[in-house]
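Subject line: Sequence and fold of a protein, written as structure tokens
Area: Proteins and the way their chains fold up in space.
Start of record: The labelled sequence and token lines come straight after this line.
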Amino acid sequence: MKKAECEASGLNGKWFADMEERIPRGGARTRFAPSPTGFMHLGGMRTALYAYLLAKSMGGKFFLRIEDTDRARLVEGAAEAIPATLRGAGLLFDEGPDIGGPAAPYVQSERREFYRPYAELLCERGAAYYCFCGHVDHEGRDHAEHGLVSREEDPCRALPYAQGKRRAEAEAHVVRMKAPREGTTTFHDEVFGDVTVENASLDDMVLLKSDGLPTYNFANVIDDHLMGTTHVLRGDEYISSAPKYTLLYKALGWDEPVYITVSRIMRDERHKLSKRHGDPTYEDLLGEGFLPEAIINYIALLGWSPGGERELYTLAELEEVFSVKGISKSPALFDKAKLRHFNAEYIRAKAPGDFAALAEPYIRQAVKTPDVSIPEIAAILQPRCERLADIGDMIGFIDRLPDYSAEMFVHKKSKCDKSVALDMLLEALIAFQNAPDWAEGTIRAELAGIAERHGVKNATVMWPVRVAVSGMAVTPGGAVELCRILGRYETLGRVGAAIERLSAEGTAW
């Protein structure tokens, strides 16, 4: 509505005009508008990311709106977790209802006085009506409360406006949109193009519930207009609601925002990601030791492409290259192995000190042995770690040597069998006892000297020592690094135990 139209309205004309005056104008404005009915799933996180990237790529503003009008489905703590999650991922929203300090999200339940005037205006214009009927579905839910409207004609639809308004002052009611029964409604989407639906397929959705709160769809339209939203990023599950939005915008005389629909993220070719089926949320992935920057980079490429072969982008680089033209209509397949690859690349790119700080809680949880060196352990982990949560399994041998078979000493590539392993370990035990110090360089020199004296490759000595001190075939570091971390006393004890194990089996060789 233009200001003159607002002031000419029979209901609250000046109020509408004042609201129009307060709408932010100029520049791109995008929003992320989740319902706090759970914690951040990957599809929602990707929508937030795309909305953020679009705003930044256009030099605009990105804001957060918590759509909490469905009070029955609220999950405790979710409304607080959503902004914290976005901030942790680097998706900082630019504004909120409070001036000064960090930006806070807009919260729909705190804006309830804004919605009824527009619902009443639509009733006045004949685009909506007061409904006093209760329609109960097969599960006992009230259609009037939940917007589950019967295909049958609502008798309240035919009530004259004045009669409906008079009854609404005294009777419990909802406000419904009066969807047209004939013709078609078309909306345009930047990804899917023009989409046309038959109006006969549209229900008279509830706009205001009997508790005075708006339904999700109605509040969505009102808030997007009043907040000056220029571009709406949304998942393809909202395609079916879009014609109703178009009718509301038209009835209110407002221009629609630019719609950009993204396809869903799939677990496999037939099933979308679902928490009910054990698929991870964003927080789950953090708990598994994936880095926020790796997750953001990976999900950015689930349904969008910058072109070319490059895959690794920082958030700042994504802001520079993001374009709606790169969004695909096709569903994207979530590949956890690919995410692990991304995460490993980000871990390896960390400065050693930064990785040590990230790894320290996981190291301390796995290793109770006193006086271990966190930086030394982190140094052997960093080139080999794919997830921080893997650290415990990688270094559990430090505290307690696992049970292992003597067959593990056999390694064809290193030209090592149990007899050779016993010989190498006997010499290593003596060398370690006589070593002048326990520096890494000294340990390496002692083991290399044994290989040289026997005329074998270093691997023929390193392999049995590595197995003896770790009890594992795959370790986060080589024999030298492991011996250094364990210390001379522990290394001597483990090498001695391996010699006893091999000696006991010697008669069977």
